[in-house]
Amino acid sequence: MKKLIKKRLGEWIERFPYLWKMLMVFRYRNHPFVRRLVSPKHDLVIEGYPRSANSFSVKCFFYSNGWLDAKVATHTHSPAQVSLAAKWGVPTMVLFRDPDQAVVSFLALSFQSGSLDGERMDEKKKLQWIQYMTRRYVHYYEEIIKVKDKILLVSFSEATNDFGGVLEKLNSQYGKSFEYFEHSKASIDKIFSTSQKHLSPNDDREKIKKNIKEIYFSKGNEVKREEARKVYSELSRLAG
Length: 240
Hints:
Layout: H1 2-14, H2 17-27, E1 44-48, H3 54-65, E2 72-74, H4 79-88, E3 92-96, H5 99-113, H6 123-145, E4 152-155, H7 156-161, H8 163-174, H9 185-193, H10 203-216, H11 222-239
Parallel strand pairs: 1-2, 1-3, 3-4
């Protein structure tokens, strides 16, 4: 319960992007993660709700553009990062995925990694987390939609099937010249071979998903799930 309260407090802070950034810089002042926090000097922002091809997209970008040749702000999973990028005119792509897949996948990874102790949770506690993460999806993208004209929305399917096309759109929208990504079997195999296991499907995680799906699609999460699906439909419409 303390974790949930802390996360809800974090959502309130996100409504004030500059305050959020200041607190994040202080929190990660001695950690390399601080370089992932957006500034006006960044070349690109890649963000999205967890499990929406964030890591995959970052890997693809650096694969074709060089690990040391660009400054990319990423993986805060916070709308405040996107809000600041929009204010500063930093090229930004925001990834989105069907909530029925993204929420379940994120909680399964959280249980598998131990960041959430799923084994000690009863069904009621699991439902609370599922409700929160479903509502988080809604909050995240409702904030993103406010700056829709200043970002590039990219679906999970588009990113994972044609990231080269995504970079072409990004270059066209922002007048940039990032190197094209050749979306071939060879390049994708190389990316997965040099990535941590969270990037790709995992048999153990699939087993965990079964229990999460039962609760996610239960009546207790029905209202929040429908809200998330409405937001997803709007994102799909905006992305064209």
